[in-house]
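Need a sequence for this fold. Nothing fancy.
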């Protein structure tokens, strides 16, 4: 993450170290480290002083490095995921609310005072600057709208041929909507991610211990938030952010990190609950499911 800061900008960001994007693997590392720390040092969640002395640094350090990379989308995903994990672990809501508001104000100030203000203008009025900052937004809406209910047909997208920027990663949803249409896109994209969220929280509820529960919550929120931002950007609900669609967008680092989080969820799901229904004996340690 530090070495990335000495590389050159790629589309306004410094997020690449050769073929790798370290911030994607940082997401997985944050979830693992924070889950383990919260289980071993639960006393830090009881007071604001303990929170600042311990768990807060799991947000401050990676968030600061990602912000220096000018990757606002990833920074927002990381901050929201850490906040949810802390609330689930038992941190009082007021200890989370004010720092999150401060982060939102910080991101807003950076966007308004920096070059990112063009993305705000493109979000609000894409047709006024359709050849520059509003180009991607406008063509994403054209691709999504031209698909109709049932699409142009598989592999029949027109916008992906040199019209829609980043058609293979950031704008992949617009291409899918153009080829498949609204109804198949809902069945192929929206419903699976809704199922992922449902199963993720179900796995967390049935996890054998607190570490597994926090790990499942972190992975689920991280994947769901990333997917939600990508979908909202494609539909111009929020300003453009460089966030991939998990498991679908092109990109080795993003796909590998998403599969790692999916693998962690499957691993936790394979463990038997600590307290079995109908078991009157003392709770037993979790054992891997067999058969």
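Here you go.
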């Amino acid at each position: 993450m530090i070495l990335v800061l000495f590389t050159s900008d790629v589309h306004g960001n410094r997020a690449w170290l050769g073929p790798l994007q370290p911030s994607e693997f940082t997401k997985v590392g944050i979830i693992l480290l924070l889950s383990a720390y919260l289980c071993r040092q639960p006393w830090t969640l009881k007071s604001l002083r303990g929170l600042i002395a311990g768990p807060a640094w799991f947000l401050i350090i990676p968030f600061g490095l990602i912000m220096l990379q000018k990757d606002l989308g990833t920074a927002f995903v990381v901050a929201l995921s850490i906040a949810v994990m802390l609330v689930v672990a038992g941190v009082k809501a007021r200890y989370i609310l004010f720092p999150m508001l401060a982060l939102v104000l910080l991101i807003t100030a950076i966007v308004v005072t920096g070059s990112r203000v063009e993305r705000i203008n493109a979000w609000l009025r894409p047709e006024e600057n359709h050849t520059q900052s509003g180009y991607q937004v406008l063509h994403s809406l054209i691709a999504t709208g031209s698909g109709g209910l049932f699409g142009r047909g598989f592999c029949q997208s027109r916008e992906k041929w040199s019209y829609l920027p980043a058609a293979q990663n950031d704008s992949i949803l617009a291409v899918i909507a153009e080829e498949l249409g609204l109804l198949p896109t809902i069945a192929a994209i929206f419903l699976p991610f809704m199922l992922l969220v449902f199963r993720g929280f179900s796995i967390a509820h049935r996890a054998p211990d607190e570490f597994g529960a926090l790990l499942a919550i972190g992975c689920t929120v991280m994947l769901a938030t990333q997917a939600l931002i990508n979908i909202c950007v494609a539909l111009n609900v929020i300003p453009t952010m460089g966030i991939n669609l998990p498991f679908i967008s092109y990109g080795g680092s993003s796909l590998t990190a998403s599969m790692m989080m999916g693998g962690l969820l499957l691993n936790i799901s394979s463990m038997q609950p600590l307290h079995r229904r109908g078991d009157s004996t003392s709770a037993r340690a979790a054992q891997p499911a067999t058969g």
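For context: The longest helix spans residues 210-234.
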